[in-house]
Amino acid sequence: MLYIVAALIYVLDQLVKWLIRANLPVFHAVTIIPDVVEFLHIQNTGGAFSIFPNQIWLFVLVAVFVVVAVVVIERKYRPGKLAQVGLGLLLGGAVGNMTDRIIHHSVTDYVYFSIVHFAIFNLADAAIDVGVLLLLINSFRSPKNTKTETKEDVES
User: Fold this and answer.
1) By the 8 A CB rule, do 15 and 97 touch?
2) Which of 25, 40, 61, 73 sits at a 20 to 30 Å CA gap from 79?
3) Helix axes 81-104, 2-23, angle to 10 degrees
């Protein structure tokens, strides 16, 4: 399931970014819901909130680390469905933004919540955020069908 989620996010992310680049000039906007949300095309050369501008290879290296970590976690721990979805979202988003950085030397961002003046982001960013949230939720869930070790188990 993890790799299906990742592939779906990756394909959707790249498709939407291609549509934005092809149809909306940089720094132009299209209102989706007046005074709430719009598509505003920017090319972000940095990370979240445009930190570390022009450090393309730093972010590519971070994305490669994320890819390796997700694969290792999946193979070593065989996570449950919620964690697989979270890891898939994280993987798809990381690879989507990494692809932009390698090919375009920037990330195509386009969602702008004008009602709160929040940072402009994209589907890959949202997938990463939701993926991390699901992994955090999963980390607080107690594993099913596991036995808690007792003092008697340790002594025997």
Assistant:
1) no
2) 61
3) 30
What is the average per-residue pLDDT within 107-121? 93
Instruction: Supply the residues annotated as catalytic.
Output: 109, 125
**Token pair in block for residue 37:** 């949300």
Q: What is the mean pLDDT of residues 6-33?
A: 98
| DSSP 8-state code for residue 25 | -
The structure's pTM equals 0.86
pLDDT at 147 > cutoff 50? no
Average pLDDT over residues 41-64: 85
Inter-residue contact 75 to 113 (CB < 8 Å): no
pLDDT for 75 equals 95
Q: What's the rounded Cα separation, in Å, for the pair 98 and 6?
A: 13
Question: Residues 13, 122: contact at Cβ < 8 Å?
Answer: yes
**Residue 27, CB-side half-sphere exposure with 13 Å CA sphere:** 0
Mean pLDDT of the chain: 90
Residue 118 tokens read as 């929040």
Instruction: Record the tokens describing residue 116, joined without a space.
Output: 């709160």
The C-alpha atoms of residue 118 and residue 38 are separated, in whole angstroms, by 11
Residue closest to 106 by CA, chosen among 149, 62, 45, 153:
45
